[in-house]
Amino acid sequence: MPEPTPSQPSPSATAAAPVPRFIGPTEDGRTFAMTVGQTTTLRLTDPQSPEPEVEGAAVLLIPVANVADGGAREWEVRAVEPGDAAIRSVGEAPWTIAFTVIE
Asked: Are 23 and 42 in contact (CB under 8 A)?
């Protein structure tokens, strides 16, 4: 008996989701789509977490002045050229967030 054709993509599909207004370590393993010039905010609520690092030239990570209570830190993530990039942290709880930037 043939299996029915699924109408939804499988959960393992790696399509990039539209980037939300704020991202953080809870998005570990996700890939977001951005267009050149688009921005989002990376927010780390743990003041002891290590500085995030960028791999690839498609996005810039720009520190934002700390104005939040409790030591939370923020960075603007700005899509600057088409391509792929990732932001990662290698602390006690490592995480990686990937980006696909298009024109």
From this structure: yes
The answer to whether residues 64 and 41 touch, using CB atoms and an 8 Å cutoff, is yes
DSSP 21-90: SEE-GGGTT-EEEEETT-EEEEEE--TTSPPPEEESSSEEEEEE---SGGG-EEEEEEE-SSEEEEEEE-
Which pLDDT score, from 0 to 100, does residue 4 have?
47
Strands across the sheet containing 53-55: 17-18, 31-35, 95-102, 83-89, 53-55
- Specify whether the CB–CB gap between 8 and 78 falls below 8 A: no
CB atoms within 10 A of CB 79: 25
Q: Please calculate the CA angle 80-85-87 and round it to the nearest 5 degrees.
A: 105
What average pLDDT is seen over the chain?
A: 86
Structure tokens belonging to residue 51: 């500085």
pLDDT value of residue 43? 94
Q: Which tokens in the block code for residue 16?
A: 């990039």
